[in-house]
Amino acid sequence: MNLAFTREEFEARLAKVRAAMVERSLDLLILSDPCNFYYVAGYEAWSFYVQQYLLVRADDDRPVWLGREMDARGARLTTWLRDEDLHTYPDSYVQSDERHPGQFLANFLRERGWHKGRIGVESQSYYLTAKTQKVLEAELGDAAIVDASLLVNRVRAVKSPAEIEYMRQAARIVEGAMATAIQHTRPGVRQCDVAAEIYRALMRGTPDFGGQYASSPPFMPSGERVDTPHLSWTDQPYASEGQANFELVACRHRYHTQLSRTVSLGRPTDTQRRLEAAALEGIEAALTAARPGARACDVEAAWREAAARHGVRKSARVGYAVGIAYPPTVGEQTISLRPEDRTVLEPGMTFHLMPAVWQEGASIVITEPFVVTETGAETFCRFERKLFWTE
Amino acid sequence: MNLAFTREEFEARLAKVRAAMVERSLDLLILSDPCNFYYVAGYEAWSFYVQQYLLVRADDDRPVWLGREMDARGARLTTWLRDEDLHTYPDSYVQSDERHPGQFLANFLRERGWHKGRIGVESQSYYLTAKTQKVLEAELGDAAIVDASLLVNRVRAVKSPAEIEYMRQAARIVEGAMATAIQHTRPGVRQCDVAAEIYRALMRGTPDFGGQYASSPPFMPSGERVDTPHLSWTDQPYASEGQANFELVACRHRYHTQLSRTVSLGRPTDTQRRLEAAALEGIEAALTAARPGARACDVEAAWREAAARHGVRKSARVGYAVGIAYPPTVGEQTISLRPEDRTVLEPGMTFHLMPAVWQEGASIVITEPFVVTETGAETFCRFERKLFWTE
Q1: Which of A82, B32, B363, B382 has the highest count of CB atoms within 10 angstroms of its CB?
Q2: CA A189, A190, A195 angle in degrees (round to 5)?
Q3: Both A187 and A313 in a single domain?
Q4: Which residues of chain A have a CB within 8 Å of the CB of B154?
Q5: Are A246 and A357 in contact, with CB atoms under 8 Å apart?
């Protein structure tokens, strides 16, 4: 057993989750999101492509892991749960037309008398599936099955000192990867070769600690792709003009820290300089606005007003809560820095301020992850905040 | 627009999908699986962490993409769809408590009169979500919403020559990454530093073509983790005894080819040699059994009988169909090489023969991806099939 946190920290997390369950009158919570497996139990194997369930009961301090037979060893190695609380279904339930793990789960619950009352499921998680919810509703006629999506995600919003320390370590790693990206980006170099160096830096980490696979690949569009989010590299060489964007993310003990910068290929154009000015002033304004008591929407408003002075606007959110992540998303899916989100910021909340600007044929991607402190906000990274450019 | 396949190949795919829809009496198919987005339309951005839908109608040869506002450019750049068939919902629908993209989709369908008849959804896809299906059922009272999971996945089973060529290219990449892994694995070297070299090799690819991010990270357990599947590396150094497993996967134009080998740290033990013998004979028997007309279960039976002669058995499937992949799984989720799967093999089907053996404290992971040919089976990789070991 190699836990990244103390037993006490896991117990405190579980207590918070159970309190949130009581508030929602839930008797049982069936978790599917691997981030929540990690948060509550420490479980960290890449097994979420098959059905697996972490069961938390409001009146019991021992969560139960139910997964595929071959993954029980991973649960034994990586969680604080007791061996007798690890249960498995046979491999014949995996991707079968005849059997569904949800049926196994329903039987499991019935045998223990846990099949009644109010049962929360994560209906918005990628890893429950609509089919599973249908199976559970059909099998558990005595229960009220309710959507408890994001219940645990919301508990995760405020980070402990230990969690923040891992995000700081991930920040050291992502800084190194960004320096590597900028160093290797030159006209004529294949984009995939720069991606190779970035990945190498992300995994090597520092002499003191290494990196892990992250929730998402580097996004690094260039050429005709440079105005388009969510694209990765190609195997074409960088051109001698235009720009390259780098949205990088490092992972340490499943905690993620991101950093994005744009590199101009050649001397920056006026458009690039204008977007840079908007980005830098917007970020400065947003970081000044972020403090305990401010609302998520206040941070966005500060960014928006500063950027507007440069004629720049953005219809998408300018940031989101971050911490633990597994594919496909680095965000916690809870708080967004946008006009309608009135969540009040608290010390220990962590965000990726991500005000990328995408325009037809142009973009700027300069971002800063930060933690809300007792008095304001502190960025995780120490990396020059500007538009970089190659000679 | 940079298509990895000809327009004719996309049209042939769509025709097959529509024929399968007619067979199931479906009027409309709402796709959520990003592999199926790529297969049908070419769409390849990492945007599947938000809701997006690819709509295929049985009586129309123009699929419709509906996604997040900022992702429309990616659809324009990477698909063969016409601009007027790309539609978006506003960013305020993203991860909102008040609005759901499924409502937007339902309105969209109503406006076009596509909200009636039999509508297929991918209820077992990671990316539909249970919540979306509930929203659609509530909104589309005039339709029969049925589970059409894997309909397109099944169409994908038999690969074209162009698809097989990309898997061959991915094979070249994964061979290079495996050679790199074996070369760097030495007692005292940090596992994360070997992971760094593996990733570098996977992305650099060859001088002729580079690699892309794959559906899964390398799995490379060692030390106390060596008997446990689905675990990645740590930042601890390799010990001077025991072993290291490497399950690697390379990606080329979203087509994946895998390769796994075990490296003994020091001279192999008798247990390792016995597991090696079982693995090698099992693989040889399975590859001999794999040919057109044989069933998936016949391949497994051949492996099982050969391995049993060495006292080795395995309760999980020994392989699965492969091709296009996105996280979280490299498998196509259709055909499994296991006793109950009677699918008859056809030329062009592609599998990862993955008979990893996990025992308490021991394991062997030697695998071979292969394509079914007109007369038998051909492995994608040319990589020495044996237990490797460090001096």
Answers
A1: B32
A2: 110
A3: yes
A4: none
A5: no
CB neighbour list of residue A213: distance below 8 Å, 6 or more residues apart: A251, B217, B232
Band the pLDDT of A360: cuts 50, 70, 90: confident
Q: Are β-strands B117-121 and B86-89 bridged in parallel, bridged antiparallel, or unpaired?
A: unpaired
Query: Measured between CB atoms, which of B71, B149, B205 is closest to A131?
Result: B149
Q: How many CA atoms lie within 13 A of A244 on its CB side?
A: 33
- Which residues of chain A make contact with B53, given a CB cutoff of 8 A? none
Q: Summarize pLDDT for A154-174 with one digit per residue, the tens.
A: 999 999 999 999 999 999 999
Contact assignment for A229 to B70 by CB distance below 8 Å: yes
Interface membership of A147 toward B (CB under 8 Å): yes
What's the predicted TM-score (pTM) here?
0.98
**What would the two tokens of residue A238 be?**
């960088």
**Res. A58: pLDDT tops 90:** yes
% of chain B surpassing 90 pLDDT: 95
Q: Which chain A residues contact residue B227 at CB under 8 A?
A: 73
Backbone angles phi, psi at A368, to 5 degrees: -140, 120
Nearest to B123 by CA among B112, B134, B115, B138: B134
Looking at A140, A155, A170, the residue that finishes a domain is A155
Q: What is the pLDDT of residues B311-347, one digit of tens each?
A: 999 888 999 999 999 999 999 999 999 999 999 999 9
| Gap between the Cα atoms of B164 and A157, Å rounded | 46
Residue B122 is given by DSSP the state: -
A1 in a structural domain: no
pLDDT at site B46: 97
Q: How confident is the model at residue B1 (pLDDT cuts 50, 70, 90)?
A: low
Residues 6+ apart with CB under 8 A from B175: B259, B381, B382, B383
Which of A184, A193, A230 should be substituted to probe chain B, the one whose Cβ sees the most B Cβ atoms within 10 Å? A230
Contact A233 B210 (CB under 8 A): yes
Q: Using alpha carbons only, how large is chain A's radius of gyration in Å? A: 22
d(CA B120, CA B334): 18
Residue B391 has pLDDT above 90, yes or no: no
Cβ <8 Å between B197 and A200: yes
Q: Output the CA angle B321-B322-B328, nearest 5 degrees.
A: 110
In chain B, the number of structural domains is 2
A80 falls in which pLDDT band (50, 70, 90)?
A: very high
CB contact under 8 A, B340 and A48: no
How many Å apart are CA A204 and CA B194, to the nearest integer? Answer: 8
At A86, which CATH number? 3.40.350.10
Q: CATH code at B247?
A: 3.90.230.10
Rounded CA-CA distance B390/B99 in Å is: 57
Same domain, B107 and B194: no
Show which of residues 222-241 on chain A sit within 8 Å of chain B, judged by CB atoms: 224-225, 227-235
pLDDT for A305 beyond 90: yes
- What is the rounded average pLDDT of the residues A306-313? 95
Share of chain B above pLDDT 70, in %: 100
| H or E, element range at B139 | helix B130-139
Q: Which residue range is the domain that position B246 belongs to? A: 161-390
Do B347 and B273 fall into the same domain? yes
Alpha-carbon distance B256 to B166, whole Å?
Answer: 8
Q: How far is A215 from chain B (nearest CA, A)?
A: 10
Whether the pLDDT of residue B97 is over 90: the answer is no
Are B90 and B237 within one domain?
no
Classify the C-alpha dihedral A299-A305-A311-A317 as positive or negative.
Answer: positive
Asked if B200 and A192 count as a contact pair (C-beta separation under 8 A), the reply is no
Q: Where are the alpha helices (DSSP H) in A58-160?
A: 72-78, 101-112, 130-139, 151-155
Residue B1 lies in a domain: no
Contacts of A204 in chain B (CB under 8 A): 192-193, 196
